[in-house]
Each structure stands twice: as structure tokens, then as C-alpha cells.
């Protein structure tokens, strides 16, 4: 295959012989490179390259036919006339509300009594006096007795707490706190009734040397405390004192149950 070089195009170019030889050996390894001419690398026998023939023109396409004329659409009919609505009748005349009859004369409200004193509820001829008042003076002796028992119970429970440890000591401390609270509640009720303060003179309790025997003694004492408060609740006519005695009786039953549970764990 003979290489054809475009002489008019390469005539004015200065091509390096070594570069031309290297490119020629890579592109045309089986043919000898043409000799340089007047400082150039274009051979005498080179034939100018011929331009490729222009592609044949596309055949003429047939003309696009015209769209057919659209058919005439039928005319839109007119909307029918709206029917005539009936006449709305007038609303009937509302009757006037008759005037309310004149109210009957109400009885006059009775005035408050002019004399001072504690008012009583109407319809009650013998209503009880207010609780924790002077009418509860008969409970003063019973209150003093219970205050002494409450102080004794607090001292005994505190001594048992010092002689025990662990859960037993914690339970005895709780019993002592409950009895101190009972003493304060009884003391307040006594003061409201009598207007005086009362401080019982109680001695230190005598307990057995054995802790289980001491707990047994306190168990019996708590039952007696419960019975004393139940009797006081039945005997009093003061509703506030009755509620207080009943609550203290429930605490005594609870304390006896706690001591019983401790002795069951020691067995």
C-alpha cells in the first residue's frame, strides 16, 4: 500500500526528520520512509489526497396531503326555560305570649335572733353542743388516764428498742413514735375541753431481763391499751373524742400484731 501525502498542505511545514522517522516506523512498520526533500519529509512521488465524494442527496419526499376539512358540528340546543316556582306563602302571625300572672306573696324571711349565743339548727330542739367543748368535761378524767398510758407505752417501747437490734429495734422505735403522737393528740383534746395542760408523772417501766419475755409483756399491754380506748369511745358523747379513741384502739391492735410477728420470727 502506497502512502499518499498532501503536498500543498505540508509544503510550508518544518518537520523534524527523527520525529518523522519515529512516527513512520510506528504507523508503517513494513515500508521504508520516503526521503526528505529540501529540509522537508515529503517524497516526490506523493500524490495529494482526494476529498471524499459528497453523499448523494436525499430523494425527494412526497408532499404531505392537506388535512380534510372538518365536518360541520350540529348546533347546540338552547337550554330549556326554568320552571316557574310556586309563591312562598307568608308566615302565620305569631300569637303574643300572655303576660305572666302576678307572683304570689312569699312569706317573709325570719330575722336572725338578736340574743347572742351558739345558733342551733332549725327543727332541732336539743342539738348536741360542738365537739371538744365545755359539754365534754366528763371526759377529762378519762383523758388524763389515757395520757398516762400513752406516755408509759412510749417509754416502754423506747427501752425495748435500745435492748434489741435490726428489724426489732426499728419496729419498737415505730411503736414509741406512735405512742408519743397519741399523747400529743390526747393532750390537745384535754386542753380544748378544760383550757389547762396536764403532764402525767410516769415512772420508768420494769421489764424482764429476757427480750422475748419483755416483748410478751408489751404485747399484753398493747391489748389493754386497745380495750381502754374502745371503752372510752363507747362511753363518750363527743363525736370528735369518739373518733380519736377509735383510731388509738386500732393502733393498739396493730402494735400487738407487730410484736406477735417479731416473736414468731424468734421461735
What would your notes on this structure say?
With 267 residues, the protein is an all-alpha fold. Among the domains are: 1-48, no CATH class; 134-266, Ferritin (Up-down Bundle), CATH 1.20.1260.10. It is 45% helix and 0% strand. It is built from six helices and no strands. Helix 5 runs antiparallel to helix 6 (239-266). The longest helix is centred in the C-terminal third of the chain and has 29 residues, at 166-194. The radius of gyration is 64 Å and the shape is flat. The two termini are 125 Å apart.
Give the tags.
flat, Ferritin, 267 residues, mainly alpha
Q: What's this, in brief?
A:
With 267 residues, the chain is an all-alpha fold.
Write the layout of secondary structure elements.
Layout: H1 7-10, H2 17-27, H3 140-163, H4 166-194, H5 211-235, H6 239-266
Low-confidence runs = 6-11, 36-41, 118-127
Instruction: Write down the CATH topology of the domain at 134-266.
Output: Ferritin
CATH superfamily of the domain at 134-266: Ferritin, core subunit, four-helix bundle
Q: What is the percentage of strand-forming residues?
A: under 5%
Please give the radius of gyration in angstroms.
Answer: 64 Å
Determine the fraction of residues in helical runs and give it as a percent range.
40-55%
Count of DSSP H/I helices: 6
N-to-C series of helices and strands: HHHHHH
Amino acid at each position: 500500500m502506497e502512502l499518499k501525502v498532501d503536498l500543498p498542505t505540508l509544503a510550508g511545514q518544518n518537520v523534524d526528520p527523527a520525529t518523522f522517522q519515529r512516527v513512520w516506523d510506528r504507523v508503517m512498520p513494513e515500508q521504508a520512509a520516503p526521503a526528505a526533500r529540501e529540509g522537508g519529509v515529503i517524497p516526490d512521488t506523493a500524490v495529494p489526497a482526494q476529498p471524499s465524494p459528497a453523499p448523494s442527496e436525499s430523494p425527494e419526499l412526497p408532499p404531505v396531503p392537506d388535512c380534510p376539512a372538518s365536518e360541520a358540528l350540529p348546533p347546540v340546543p338552547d337550554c330549556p326555560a326554568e320552571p316557574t316556582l310556586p309563591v312562598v306563602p307568608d308566615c302565620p302571625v305569631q300569637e303574643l305570649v300572655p303576660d305572666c300572672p302576678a307572683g304570689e306573696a312569699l312569706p317573709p324571711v325570719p330575722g336572725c335572733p338578736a340574743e347572742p349565743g351558739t345558733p342551733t339548727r332549725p327543727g332541732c330542739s336539743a342539738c348536741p353542743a360542738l365537739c371538744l367543748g365545755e359539754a365534754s368535761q366528763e371526759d377529762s378524767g378519762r383523758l388524763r388516764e389515757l395520757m398516762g398510758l400513752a406516755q408509759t407505752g412510749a417509754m416502754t417501747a423506747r427501752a425495748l428498742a435500745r435492748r434489741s437490734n435490726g428489724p426489732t429495734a426499728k419496729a419498737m422505735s415505730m411503736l414509741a413514735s406512735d405512742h408519743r403522737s397519741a399523747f400529743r393528740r390526747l393532750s390537745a383534746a384535754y386542753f380544748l375541753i378544760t383550757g389547762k395542760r396536764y403532764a402525767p408523772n410516769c415512772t420508768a417501766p420494769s421489764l424482764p431481763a429476757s427480750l422475748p419475755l419483755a416483748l410478751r409483756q408489751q404485747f399484753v399491754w398493747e391489748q389493754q391499751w386497745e380495750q381502754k380506748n374502745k371503752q372510752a369511745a363507747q362511753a363518750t358523747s363527743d363525736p370528735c373524742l369518739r373518733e380519736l379513741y377509735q383510731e388509738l384502739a386500732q393502733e393498739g391492735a396493730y402494735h400487738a400484731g407487730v410484736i406477735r410477728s417479731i416473736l414468731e420470727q424468734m421461735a
